[in-house]
Amino acid sequence: MSSEQATQAAAAAAAAAASTPVEKAAPAQSKKQSKKSKKQDQQFLLKTPKGTKDWADKDMIIREAVFGSLSSLFKRHGGVTIDTPVFELREILTGKYGEDSKLIYNLEDQGGELTSLRYDLTVPFARFVACNSISNIKRFHIAKVYRRDQPAMTKGRMREFYQCDFDIAGNYDTMVPDSEILKITTEGLTGLGINDFKIKLNHRKILDGIFQACGVKDDDVRKISSAVDKLDKSPWEAVKKEMVVEKNQPEEVADKIAQKGIEEMTILADYVEAFGIEKHLSFDLSLARGLDYYTGLIYEAVTAASAPPTNASELKEKAKKETKEVEDASEYVGVGSIAAGGRYDNLVGMFSNGKSIPCVGISFGVERIFSIIKARAAKQLEKLSSSQTQVFVMAFGGGEGWNGFLKERMEVTNKLWSAGINSEFLYKAKPNIRKQFDAADKSGSQVAVILGKEEYPQGQVRVKVLGQGDDSDEGDLVKVEDLVKSVEVQAI
Amino acid sequence: MSSEQATQAAAAAAAAAASTPVEKAAPAQSKKQSKKSKKQDQQFLLKTPKGTKDWADKDMIIREAVFGSLSSLFKRHGGVTIDTPVFELREILTGKYGEDSKLIYNLEDQGGELTSLRYDLTVPFARFVACNSISNIKRFHIAKVYRRDQPAMTKGRMREFYQCDFDIAGNYDTMVPDSEILKITTEGLTGLGINDFKIKLNHRKILDGIFQACGVKDDDVRKISSAVDKLDKSPWEAVKKEMVVEKNQPEEVADKIAQKGIEEMTILADYVEAFGIEKHLSFDLSLARGLDYYTGLIYEAVTAASAPPTNASELKEKAKKETKEVEDASEYVGVGSIAAGGRYDNLVGMFSNGKSIPCVGISFGVERIFSIIKARAAKQLEKLSSSQTQVFVMAFGGGEGWNGFLKERMEVTNKLWSAGINSEFLYKAKPNIRKQFDAADKSGSQVAVILGKEEYPQGQVRVKVLGQGDDSDEGDLVKVEDLVKSVEVQAI
C-alpha cells in the first residue's frame, strides 16, 4: 500500500464524514476536566480517571481511519480477528512482564476469582491459543490495554491505550513468518502515510551470546537486557557498568549461542529482499526490548518525525510548573517507537503443559501513530465533521394556520431513510428558517429538502444543494414521488 | 432497512470472508476450559474468568456484521460515535443503578483514585455530556460493560458483554426525538432480519400517578417499579402485595401526574404513525424498568422467538448437574428482551451542577440478538470461513535441484499485496503439493497462482480457479507481468 493510498484512506474517511453535531456550549474538556461540580451534598470530580480520556469528534474519525487501514492490511495477509476479555485470571498474567508486572491493574477481590486488566494483547493471545489447542493461526486484535504507569516516571503515558497487534502462531520454516511480519510492519506504516521510519532489528540469541561472553549470569540476562535497551539514550559507560558484573563463563559457549542468531539473521536478509523492504531495516545491537518472553528476532520501528505523547497539552502545562523535570525528555520510554515486536516461542507452552506453539508478532503503537497523523493532517481536519448526514429536511412557511409541517417532515425523512439515505430534521414543531439552515450546516448535509407552505400540499418539494454560497438559489422543484431519485443524484 | 437488506448484510460479510485459518488440533474451548495445565511448580487454571468468553471464527463474523448493520443505521440518523474509558471514577457510578449497584466491579485500591468498571454506557455518556458542556448530540457507542451477576441468581448472564447504544441529548419539542428513537429501534431489529417483535411502551409519569393513587411513598417508587416490572412473570397478587403499602395521598395529585404522561403518549401516537412503525408498538402498563434514572417514556423490545442466553452450552451442562435450579427459568431477568431504553432528563444534571440536558436513548442487547441470528443462520454459517484470503501462491516441482521457490513465491505474493489482493503462501521452504492445496482450501482462496519448476523460470505462472471440483484443470498459463490483471478477473 502506497502513501497515496493512505492519504486516500484518510480522505475517504473525511469525505464520508460531514458535520459536527456536538455543539459545545462552553470551552473544551481539557479546561473543564479539573473543575469541580457541586450537587446537593455530593462533590463530583468531573473527569475521567487519571491516564484515561474520552474520544470524540475528529479524533474519532482519524482513529477509525487508522484502524480501518490496518484491518484491511491484516486481512490482505490472511489474518482473522479475535476478541478476548478485558480482564484475565491474575495468575495468567503473573511472571510474564518482568519488572513491569507492578504496573498491572488488579480488580478488587469481591469474592471469587482474582482477576486483573490485561497488560498487553500478547499474553491473552498465547492463553487463547493454548485454551483452544490451536496449532496455527494468523490473528489480529485491536483493543485497549491497561498499565498503571506513574506519570512522574514516564511523563504523560496513558494508562488506558489501544494496541493493534498481528501475530502468526505455528510451526514453520526459519524466518519465513518473521519476514512477513516485517513486511506487514512496513506496509502498515507506509499505508498510513508514514514513510520516514527505520525498523531496528536484533536477535535475542546474538544478545545472549554477547552477554555470556561478558560473563552475565543467566538469571541476570533480562535485567541486563533492559539496561542495553537504553543504549540509544544513555552513555555506554553507564550501561557497561550495569552490565559487566562477573566473568566466569567459557567463551565458546557464548560463541555457539550467538552463532545461531547470526545464521538466522542471514536467512532473514534474503527474505526481506524478496519483500522489497530492506531499505527500512537496520541491524542494531543496542536493541534489547524489556519483556521477558522474546526468544528470537526482535524489532522496533522508530521515526524521526515522531510526535509528542498523546496528551501533549497536559505535558506543556506541567512543563510550566516543573521545567527541570520535563527538560529531561531523554527519559521518555521509547519516544519515537511506533511499532515493536518479536518472536516468542515459549509463551504458549507456559499455558499448555509445555506443548509450545512458536509465535512471532508486531504491535503497532496506534496512539503515537495517531498523534503523528493528526499533526500532519491538521489543515485537512479543519473542514472535517464527524457525522455522515447527507440530507436535511426543512419546512418553510409562517403566518396564519402555519403548523410547521413536523409530521410531514417526519414522513419525508422516513422515505429517505427507507432508501438508505442519511437524513435529519430539526426536532421542533415550528422551526424557523435560519435555525434549520444552521443545523443543516452543522450536520454537514450536502442537500436540503424543503417543504414549502404552498408547494408541499400540492405534492412538491424543493431540492437545494448546500454550501454553494448562492442564497438566491431556491433549488429544484420536484414531485414528492421523485424525491429519492432526485436526492440520490445531488447527494454524492 | 428491510429484512432482505439484513440478509444481504450478513451475506456480504459471508461473501467477504473465506476460510478457517484457525486449525484446531483438539476439541473446542468449552471442553478444554476447565482443564488444568501444569507447568513447573505453577498450576494454571486455563480459562477465561467466570462470565467472560473469547470471540473468534464465525461468531466474530456475525458479530461484526451486526455491529456494521447497527452502525450504518445510526449514521443514517445523523449519529456520531464516541469512546469513553472502560473504568470511571467510582463516585460517578454511585447512586445511579439502585439495587443493582452491588453488581459493579471495583478496581483494587492500589493507591490513587478509586475506580470501577462501567456498568452501562448511559452513565458514562451523561458524564461525557456534562464533562464537555455539550448542549446537544446524537451519539452511538458500541462497547463492553461489566456486571458481577451471580450465576445462581441470573443463570448464565455474562459478566462482560456488549451494549450498543444510541442516545439523543438536547432540548427539543415533546416526543420528537423519542419517536425517532423508537423508529431506530424498529429499523435496527428489522435491519438484522428480526421482524417478530413488539416494543412495549409505558411512561414513568403515568406509573408515578398510579403509584401515588395507590399511596406509594415517593421514596418507595423505584423499589415498587422493580416489582411492577416483574408483572409479566409473577402473578398480580404477588406484585400487588409488594406495591400497596400505605394510602395517604390525595387522589388529585396522582391524577395530575398521570395526566402529563397520558398527554405525551397521545402526541407520540401521532409521530410514530408518520414513521410507519405503529404496528410494532403496544402500550403496556406493566412495563416499569428497574433503573433509577428514567423520567418519561420507557420501552422494551421483546421477541417471541428469543434465543437462550449466549452461553447456552454452559447452561445445558449445568442443567445436567442441577436440574432443579435451571428449570426455574422464569427467573431469567428479561428473557425475550432484545432492546430497551427510555427518557432520562435529570442524569446529566447530576454531573453538571444541576444544569441538565434532557436525554432519550435505546440500548440493543446485541449478545441476545447475536444468539437469535446465529441460530437462524446456522446452515449458511457452515460454509463460512473467517479469513478473507483471495489468492494462494504455490510452487509445483520436485527432483534434482528443486529448491521450493520460496523466495519466488514471496516475490509473487508481494506483487499481489501491492495490488491490494489478499494473498497467502505456505511458510515452508519446500512445500508439498497436497499441503499447499489443503492450506489454500482452509484459507478460502478462490484462486491459486502456481509457480511451476519449468514454467516460472520462463516468466510464466498458472492461474487456477479453486473449488470447481475439476482436478484435471491445470489453470491458465499467463505471463508474470500479466498476473495481477489475470487474478483480478478470476478473484471476484
UniProtKB/TrEMBL annotation, chains A, B:
<feature type="binding site">
    <location>
        <position position="147"/>
    </location>
    <ligand>
        <name>L-histidine</name>
    </ligand>
</feature>
<comment type="similarity">
    <text>Belongs to the class-II aminoacyl-tRNA synthetase family.</text>
</comment>
<keyword id="KW-0436">Ligase</keyword>
<feature type="binding site">
    <location>
        <position position="167"/>
    </location>
    <ligand>
        <name>L-histidine</name>
    </ligand>
</feature>
<feature type="binding site">
    <location>
        <begin position="293"/>
        <end position="294"/>
    </location>
    <ligand>
        <name>L-histidine</name>
    </ligand>
</feature>
<dbReference type="Pfam" id="PF13393">
    <property type="entry name" value="tRNA-synt_His"/>
</dbReference>
<dbReference type="GO" id="GO:0005829">
    <property type="term" value="C:cytosol"/>
</dbReference>
<feature type="binding site">
    <location>
        <position position="289"/>
    </location>
    <ligand>
        <name>L-histidine</name>
    </ligand>
</feature>
<feature type="binding site">
    <location>
        <position position="163"/>
    </location>
    <ligand>
        <name>L-histidine</name>
    </ligand>
</feature>
<dbReference type="InterPro" id="IPR004154">
    <property type="entry name" value="Anticodon-bd"/>
</dbReference>
<dbReference type="GO" id="GO:0003723">
    <property type="term" value="F:RNA binding"/>
</dbReference>
<dbReference type="GO" id="GO:0005524">
    <property type="term" value="F:ATP binding"/>
</dbReference>
<feature type="compositionally biased region" description="Low complexity">
    <location>
        <begin position="1"/>
        <end position="31"/>
    </location>
</feature>
<keyword id="KW-0030">Aminoacyl-tRNA synthetase</keyword>
<keyword id="KW-0648">Protein biosynthesis</keyword>
<keyword id="KW-0547">Nucleotide-binding</keyword>
<dbReference type="GO" id="GO:0006427">
    <property type="term" value="P:histidyl-tRNA aminoacylation"/>
</dbReference>
<feature type="domain" description="Class II Histidinyl-tRNA synthetase (HisRS)-like catalytic core">
    <location>
        <begin position="52"/>
        <end position="304"/>
    </location>
</feature>
<dbReference type="GO" id="GO:0004821">
    <property type="term" value="F:histidine-tRNA ligase activity"/>
</dbReference>
<protein>
    <recommendedName>
        <fullName>histidine--tRNA ligase</fullName>
        <ecNumber>6.1.1.21</ecNumber>
    </recommendedName>
</protein>
<keyword id="KW-0963">Cytoplasm</keyword>
<feature type="region of interest" description="Disordered">
    <location>
        <begin position="1"/>
        <end position="43"/>
    </location>
</feature>
<dbReference type="Pfam" id="PF03129">
    <property type="entry name" value="HGTP_anticodon"/>
</dbReference>
<dbReference type="InterPro" id="IPR041715">
    <property type="entry name" value="HisRS-like_core"/>
</dbReference>
<dbReference type="InterPro" id="IPR036621">
    <property type="entry name" value="Anticodon-bd_dom_sf"/>
</dbReference>
<dbReference type="GO" id="GO:0032543">
    <property type="term" value="P:mitochondrial translation"/>
</dbReference>
<feature type="binding site">
    <location>
        <begin position="120"/>
        <end position="122"/>
    </location>
    <ligand>
        <name>L-histidine</name>
    </ligand>
</feature>
<dbReference type="InterPro" id="IPR033656">
    <property type="entry name" value="HisRS_anticodon"/>
</dbReference>
<keyword id="KW-0067">ATP-binding</keyword>
<dbReference type="InterPro" id="IPR045864">
    <property type="entry name" value="aa-tRNA-synth_II/BPL/LPL"/>
</dbReference>
<dbReference type="GO" id="GO:0005739">
    <property type="term" value="C:mitochondrion"/>
</dbReference>
<feature type="domain" description="Anticodon-binding">
    <location>
        <begin position="390"/>
        <end position="487"/>
    </location>
</feature>
<dbReference type="InterPro" id="IPR004516">
    <property type="entry name" value="HisRS/HisZ"/>
</dbReference>
